[in-house]
Amino acid sequence: MSFTGSEGEAVLSWTEAVARIGRMLAEHRPSLYPTEEWDDLIDIRISKLSLDGAGADSGKGDDGQAVKSVLHLWNESLDLSHELSQDMHTPLGSCLHGIMHRMEGDYSNAKYWFRQAGSLPVHSSLLEQAKALFPIGDGERIGSVTLRSQLERLVSASAWDSLLFVDAIAHQVTVAHDAAAEELLLELQWAELKLLLQYAIQQSGGESLEL
Question: Does some domain include residue 160?
C-alpha cells in the first residue's frame, strides 16, 4: 500500500520500500567470504530507508534496523551491516552479527554471536531447505571427506546447527575449496538471508515480501 506525501507525491510504505531493494538483490548469491560490496548504489538505497515508514507499517526499532542489516549482508557490505547489528541487543541482532563475522572470516567470533542468538523461528525452515538441497546419501558429490561429514551431520540433525554451518564454511574457505560444496553452501547462505529478511520485515511491523 502506497501513501501520498504532503505535496501529492507517492510515498512507498515500509514494506514496499524494502521489497524494491529486495528485488534488486533477489538473485544475487553473496560470497562465503566477500571482500567488497556487490553494488555500492544499493548500499545508498538501504541507508536511505526511512525507519518511520508509513502508518502501522512502520519499520521502527531494532527490527527495522535488522531489515537494513540483512540487506547490507546480502549486498556483501559487512561493515555497514556490522554498524547496525552490534547495537541490536536481540536474538535476531546477534544472529546477524554472527553472520557478519562468519562472512568476514572471524569464525570463532561468529560462533560467540550465534550462541548468543540461540534458535530463531526461521531455523526450522532453513533446516528443511538444507535437507532438500543435500539429501542424506547424496554426499558422494562432495570431494572433501571432512566437508561431506559436516554437511551430512548438518542435515541429519533434528534442529538447525548454526555452529556446524560455521565450521563447514570455514573448512570450505580455508582448506577444501570444493566446487560442489561451494555451490551448496552458497545456496544455503542465500536461503538463510532470504528467510531472515522475511522474518525481520514481519517483526518490524511490515508484511510478507514478494521478491
Answer: yes
